[in-house]
Design brief:
Length: 498
């Protein structure tokens, strides 16, 4: 059993960026240690070094005082270290049970997979997590939240001495979070070393024993959770007082004519949806996980088939069958899963910014390099995207900067966006970057764009929305004005018919 994990003078640089600079701290067995910092603070880089995904330029990872030399993730796993990343690392075409036991499938003496034993053992784990899943279900058919739980079950099954969680609750509902926290606390009780990365302050105070704060790749503070408060942590993270994020928002107060109307829209996932959006209006879509918010957004964007009902633009019934048709009408969607659906991670920031307008910046058979550069430079300036260059792979950027790239693409001048749908726009983003994105949303509305925001964070919905549509079981369960809405009223409507 490993009793102590130590990072000693860890330094790591990438082209144009020093991700970590002489970071040192310890995590003890039986404790839950939070790793806190803004996007770009170095948290993900540190976890990748811990997991053996990348090597530090200088410094060491020590287990019980013994330096480790991980050349690959398999070395870290062998040493008893499991890292559960926010980005899911599963094979969507395989079953839940095959993903849980990936690399260690039970076999008989002839080397043939023992599917009976595999199903039995996987189902035991699924039942422990109290999930309504069959071990034989294909992972690709699961929701984002369910896929995240499968990822967590796989790490839990390995019985590692060191387990690191990177934003594990980003896609989970409260009931699933409660189960997860119960299991994490049990891991600590068993003497495991638990590293917990989250931007949700309430979770940090709810579950952790101590907090390590990083800023700009450097160690800033080592604090006992019981002896600190949110204001102290935010100041350590960003180097300044944030205050009341929402009270400082410069909001759009004028709304224009109707842009978008949805009438009796029905798909396989949602039923009888009626919704209207005006120029300069911000609509919030609230509801529990699985309520149908994302599915409604996808239907409006042309990504999911509409079985019946109408979508009207400027009062006209518009027929479009795919996202290309929606984009042509000025409807843009920034999806919930930015890494899987919003970005091409192995392409540059420049290519991701311009991918939706290639036909407009082409000269004969060739793309205009000057126009690509102009649009990319404009996005960097407008959204303060931190990148060494426009040619940097977008997969190397922090989560907050990746989200800004998606916003830059959706709102560049060649897109002529009139309706902007943002699905969980601040998911996995630090408190400082959240404030920036909230202001961006208000600024979009000021220009006359109609904005639809889907968020699982109620304070977000309540404070930036002019009108709140609450969904439950694929239907609209209530519509509230900003003045009428409260956490209690929204939750009551979200739990209707549950």
């Amino acid at each position: 059993m490993t009793n102590r994990l130590e990072f000693s003078d860890i330094t790591k640089a990438f082209p144009g960026i020093k991700a970590l600079s002489e970071v040192s701290f310890c995590a003890e067995c039986g404790q839950i240690t939070a790793l806190l910092g803004e996007n770009g603070a170095g948290k993900s880089t540190l976890l990748k070094i811990l997991s053996g995904d990348i090597k530090a330029d200088n410094g060491e990872v020590l287990l019980d005082g013994e330096p480790q030399n991980f050349k690959a993730p398999s070395d870290a796993l062998s040493a008893g270290i499991s890292v559960i990343y926010q980005e899911r690392q599963m094979v969507s075409s395989l079953s839940v049970m095959e993903n849980i036991f990936a690399g260690e499938l039970p076999r008989n003496r002839f080397g043939i997979i023992n599917y009976k034993k595999l199903k039995t053992e996987a189902q035991k784990l699924i039942d422990l997590f109290e999930l309504p899943l069959d071990a034989r279900m294909t992972v690709g058919r699961l929701s984002v939240a369910q896929q995240q739980m499968v990822e967590i079950m796989r790490a839990y099954r390995r019985n590692s001495d060191v387990i690191a969680f990177d934003e594990p609750t980003a896609s989970l509902a409260e009931a699933e979070i409660t189960i997860l926290f119960k299991l994490i606390k049990e891991l600590a009780r068993q003497g495991k070393i638990v590293i917990y990365v989250s931007h949700r302050m309430a979770e940090i105070f709810r579950i952790t024993d101590k907090i390590i704060v990083l800023k700009d790749g450097k160690f800033v503070a080592d604090l006992k959770t019981s002896e600190t408060d949110e204001r102290t942590l935010v100041k350590a993270m960003v180097g300044r007082e944030i205050g009341d994020t929402f009270s400082k928002l410069s909001r759009c107060t004028e709304q224009g004519e109707m842009i978008l109307e949805v009438k009796n829209l029905t798909t396989k996932k949602v039923t009888g949806i009626n919704l209207s959006l005006r120029k300069g209006e911000i609509i919030g879509l609230a509801g529990l996980v699985g309520a149908g918010r994302t599915e409604l957004a996808r239907a409006i964007f042309g990504a999911d088939k509409i079985d019946s009902g109408e979508v009207l633009i400027d009062g006209k019934n518009i027929r479009y069958k795919n996202p290309s048709g929606a984009l042509a009408l000025g409807i843009a969607l920034c999806p919930e899963d930015r890494k899987e659906e919003g970005l091409v991670l192995f392409r540059s920031m420049k290519e991701n910014i311009t991918i939706s307008v290639l036909s407009r910046i082409r000269k004969f058979l060739f793309l205009s390099n000057s126009e690509e550069k102009r649009l990319s430079d404009r996005a960097i300036e407008k959204y303060d995207i931190k990148t060494p260059s426009i040619n940097e792979l977008v997969g190397e950027l922090s989560g907050g900067n990746q989200q800004k790239v998606i916003l830059g693409r959706a709102t560049n001048e060649l897109m002529s966006t009139r309706v902007l749908i943002l699905d969980e726009p601040t998911k996995g983003i630090d408190v400082g970057s959240k404030a920036e994105i909230y202001q961006m949303i208000c600024d979009f509305a000021k220009t006359g764009i109609g904005v639809i925001v889907i968020s699982s964070e109620l304070p977000e919905v309540l404070n930036i929305s002019d009108t709140i549509y609450v969904m439950a079981n694929g239907r609209i369960s209530g519509v509230l004005t900003r003045e009428e809405a409260s956490e209690e009223t929204v939750l009551e409507l979200a739990m209707a018919e549950q």
